[in-house]
Amino acid sequence: MHNKTITELAKGLRNKEYSSVELTQAYLDRIQKHQGLNCFISVAETYALEQAKTADIQLASADAGLLTGIPIAQKDIFCTQGIKTSCGSKMLDTFIAPYNATVIEKFNAAGAVMLGKLNMDEFAMGSSNETSFYGAVQNPWDIKTVPGGSSGGSASAVAARLTVAATGTDTGGSIRQPASLCGITGLKPTYGRVSRYGMIAFASSLDQGGPMARSAEDAAILMQAMAGFDSKDSTSVDKAVPNYSAGLNNSLEGLKIGLPKEFFGEGLNSDIAAAIETAVNEYKKLGAEVKEVSLPNMKLAIPAYYVIASAECSANLSRYDGVRYGYRCDNPTDLNDLYIRSRGEAFGAEVKRRILMGTYALSAGYYDAYYIKAQKVRRLISEDFSKALSEVDVLMGPVSPTTAFAIGAKTNDPIEMYLADIYTIAVNLAGLPAMSLPAGLVDNKPVGLQVIGNYFTEERLLNIAHQYQQVTDWHQQTPKGFE
Ligand code: GLN
Prior knowledge:
Blueprint: H1 6-14, H2 20-33, E1 40-43, H3 45-60, E2 71-75, H4 102-109, E3 113-118, H5 152-159, E4 165-169, H6 176-182, E5 185-188, E6 209-213, H7 216-226, E7 256-260, H8 270-285, E8 289-293, H9 301-316, H10 335-346, H11 349-362, H12 367-391, E9 394-398, H13 414-418, H14 425-430, E10 434-442, E11 445-452, H15 458-471
Parallel strand pairs: 2-3, 7-8, 7-9
Antiparallel strand pairs: 1-3, 4-6, 5-6, 5-10, 9-11, 10-11
The chain binds glutamine (GLN).
Glutamine binds near residues 124, 126, 127 and 171.
């Protein structure tokens, strides 16, 4: 069962080959069997089986949807009423949200079953899932390597078939980079397409939730459930949601692909470059035209991002003060001691580094020099994308400069870690949608192809991804031992 797609599982449920309770139990057993991967922070066994029971009743009536009774898993950044939401941090290790994130509500409304909450970098800060309070996640392709981050638990769980699909969030690459390193399909939607209500904030102007699945076809089904206007999120965009599955089979004849030359320069592993070239050639066979384009300000994306993301996180994380919720230190002597020790004891090193950088960048003397400057750079980067996307329909390139790296390889060098997102971060600064598609294996490690589109073109991106997946089978490759 665990090798089936959402559409196939839905068919099996309708044909009564198995019930949702049986399907859910099968996944729960598999999660248990592979718990060494450390994908889950919480497994919601009782909750999932209850939901499955309700889904089975609904399946017996006529009004069941495609996701009814399908077990999926949620990144532990989405608030779930009654089930721990830790955001990968000691700060929220005992936090039980009193309400559901909109994304969770939407999946509940669609009848999906939630298997549990997935491991992630602490407050989504990281590119390897090693900053999690709950420990590193293993990549099923090679358990000595990282799955990428911050949605590392999601990517590893989907790749290892512990769940058919999962959610992730992408502030600077956290859906695409782990999707790439684990050989799965990930979509980071346009900023504002998916509600951020109840999705714990890291950098509010960049954060965006999206689907992580094995195929574009499955990602489209998840996206259908997740997208849409939400009056509870002031940055949610009030725009009609298209049918994401309807156009999957559209022809790519005449599609104009731009290859930004900055994506293929120094630092890109040559085998990855070759895999991307092969993928682009597949698109040519499908009728696409290819030309070189340029994003001249790309090199400024990482510094601008780390000023903006850190500034926003320093403000967002000020709410964890030991007073209202989350961790509180023992026996505080006074209010300052309470703040200092609660935050000092419960935040990890990377989170503290970002809060310090962000507070510095926002301080009176440095605000113009860093924060305002970074915002100006952000505008330049957006303009680069607008110009490139006025010449072509989509941009293609690598997701990550390397394949999965060894656990521990970059933990002592934050700058080296930040460079893992060199090809993904600019997209968030511009707020554009982008996907990562499995496009090859180098030394038996997955390589992701990135496809970047204009605002609100998720439907077209999914179509472009699906057509590639009709003529290649990289997305069907399974890591050894997880077949
Ligand atoms: N790796 C980037 C960071 O640490 C992006 C993380 C993310 O997208 N959540 O900020």
